[in-house]
């Protein structure tokens, strides 16, 4: 019945918002006040900015836009407007101190709970199927990943702990799989909480190609390094070469050389780089250079999505590689359950019909493609989410990392960043055209 559907949707909204807030609370209570207000890198906001920004976006979209309420504290809106103040300038703003930021976010959430109790999820595109609530849960989870990036950048002792993923035997399946050419459905018009840049569904033609069964591992990447990959201009685009030379980049971010082995710093602990884990903290230029060294290339965004969604038996595009069911732990390493990617070959239950593994979770995967709108794109509900970022400056990342929550992850989800960015939880897999 309509009533039961409405109650099920209310439950889904509630659990998505609660899961996000529990994570926000963890990330902002596991360090002391000075670590919340400090800027750990000019690339990132102080943690306390993310916290109040989360509350402020929730207030603007749920209490004001959906609920028609007055602004609670109109004077703080501009402090937490990401476009008014670049990240590097945020620590010098008169930000709400940690306790006040916490109280503000909690007060907004309390009023949202009242609004949710009476919501019928109809009447406008913003409320239809709970879209605005889903958007806000995704927004909070995206900032939780941003805050986890800040934690990784932070110097000092360990503050976060999580169990490691299960070890798996070395992956012995085929190194690559052939994806048939022809059209497939890219993007979505059906997914109720999909964001504007994922829409609409449209037919996309791709030529047949091979794609790696698992993400590129640290071990494989170390072979590129050992063969002098960082010193050989042949593998790099001119921009990439200039970038690594200028910044003296010779290894992924957080790596250091110790005698005969590579170490890396990970959330306050230094460890030997595990060979079987997907490589992490490489920029687009490094991913692109590795692929050229390997005689391959990065997959285009369409190739990535076809590998992740296309079911050759039905010709249909699925929500996820494993089907249409929401992600469960056996499908993918998501949600900060672990503080690292799972070894290559993990999660056989999450593989695609063609046998491609770990497309969802573990590491964001750089693609060859610029971030561009799909045909028929319409900015919704605000241009500053996607539209202002379209163009050649940003490369698309797909699939989500171990730090992404299931609510903000699906076969159609699109992320983007500058090709120089390395602090994000990004790795890659490679591809090649069939004819080569
Ligand atoms: C989609 C991850 C690039 O963090 O800049 C958060 C998400 N947008 N608040 C970002 C976002 C507005 C966005 N990314
Ligand atoms: Fe934001």
Helix percentage range: 25-40%
The largest β sheet comes out as: 4 strands, mixed
Strand content: 5-15%
Radius of gyration: 22 Å
Cofactor: Fe(2+)
Domain Sulfatase-modifying factor enzyme-like: 173-432
InterPro entries: CTDL_fold (IPR016187), DinB-like (IPR024775), DinB/YfiT-like (IPR034660), EgtB (IPR017806), EgtB_Actinobacteria (IPR032890), Sulfatase_Mod_Factor_Kinase (IPR051043), SUMF_dom (IPR005532), SUMF_sf (IPR042095)
Enzyme class: oxidoreductase
Account of the protein in words:
Catalyzes the oxidative sulfurization of hercynine (N-alpha,N-alpha,N-alpha-trimethyl-L-histidine) into hercynyl-gamma-L-glutamyl-L-cysteine sulfoxide, a step in the biosynthesis pathway of ergothioneine. Its EC number is 1.14.99.50. By secondary structure, the protein is α+β, with helices and mostly antiparallel strands. The protein has nine helices and 14 strands. The strands form five sheets. Strands 12-11-10-13 form a four-stranded mixed β-sheet. Strands 1-4-14 form a three-stranded antiparallel β-sheet, covered by helices on one side. A three-stranded antiparallel β-sheet has the order 5-6-7, with no helix packed on it. Strand 8 and strand 9 (316-317) form a beta hairpin. The model has no long low-confidence stretch (mean pLDDT 97). The protein binds N,N,N-trimethyl-histidine and fe (iii) ion (FE). Residues 139, 142-143, 146, 385, 415-416 line the site of N,N,N-trimethyl-histidine.
